[in-house]
Design goal:
alpha/beta; DNA polymerase, domain 1
Length: 243
């Protein structure tokens, strides 16, 4: 069955449509390694740095503050939640999250963002077929990333971290943001396809009862994406068949 036989396509952003997944991962590592180094030195303990497995398991695809909280829980570290607009610091979950956001925006400014292989082609083909499309991202920077990658004009609906906060939607792995995007493009979940690279996002799409969940990632991520609910896995949107 062609993806264009569905009524809607919902795309995660970073790592699916744009190259910025690697910027997020780099920003998370910089932030957590700063924090963990400071904590290890203060306590006279050995440093156990933030690694890629930590990113994939605890952080990738989740709203920023949730990612901080889940990772800290994995290390047995307790911090207060803090105010949403807290200054970037090591004093609270919000402070750490805002430090990560600060680092991400620095990386975005210096490195920019590019569409990933197949992204523009799939989205333009969907529009030509009359299929409704939306971006669903946990990031509060989705608009900036879409503009930087030259993709903003292709999407009428963007449900991102800012929209989720405004509407008080639970973040991935809960399905709320995907369901809101489906509502906004007027498509029933079982008539929509979700494209996701994060385990939390795949779980969210499966929990939302979407018609087809396509995981995007390298071969080493295939088993995990399938185990978390993907129906199929491709390395990029360039491999997704439209016929």
């Amino acid at each position: 069955m062609s993806i264009f036989e569905y009524d809607g396509l919902l795309f995660d952003l970073d790592g699916v449509l744009t190259s910025t997944g690697e910027l997020h991962e780099a920003a998370w590592k910089l932030m957590f390694d700063e924090f963990l180094t400071d904590r290890a030195e203060a306590g006279g303990m050995p440093l156990v740095s933030f690694e890629r497995d930590d990113y994939l398991e605890y952080v990738d695809g989740r709203p920023r503050f949730d990612g901080v909280s889940v990772f800290l829980d994995s290390r047995g570290i307790v911090l207060p939640r803090g105010e949403v607009e807290a200054e970037p610091s090591f004093e609270s979950i919000a402070g750490l999250g805002n430090r990560k956001n600060e680092l991400f925006n620095e990386l975005l400014g210096s490195r920019g963002a590019d569409p990933l292989p197949g992204a523009v082609e799939v989205v333009r083909s969907a529009r030509a077929h009359g299929v409704r499309i939306a971006v669903v991202s946990s990031s509060a920077n989705a608009e900036q990333v879409l503009v930087a990658a030259g993709l903003r004009g292709l999407f009428d609906v963007v449900v991102d971290g800012l929209v989720a906060r405004k509407l008080q939607l639970a973040g991935k792995p809960q399905p709320d943001t995907f369901l809101e995007a489906a509502r906004q493009v007027d498509v029933a979940p079982d008539r929509a396809v979700v494209f996701e690279d994060a385990l939390a996002g795949v779980e969210a799409a499966r929990a939302g009862g979407f018609g087809l969940v396509i995981g995007i990632g390298p071969p080493e991520n295939e088993r995990s994406l399938l185990d978390h609910g993907a129906d199929q896995v491709f390395r990029s949107l360039a491999e997704v068949r439209s016929d």
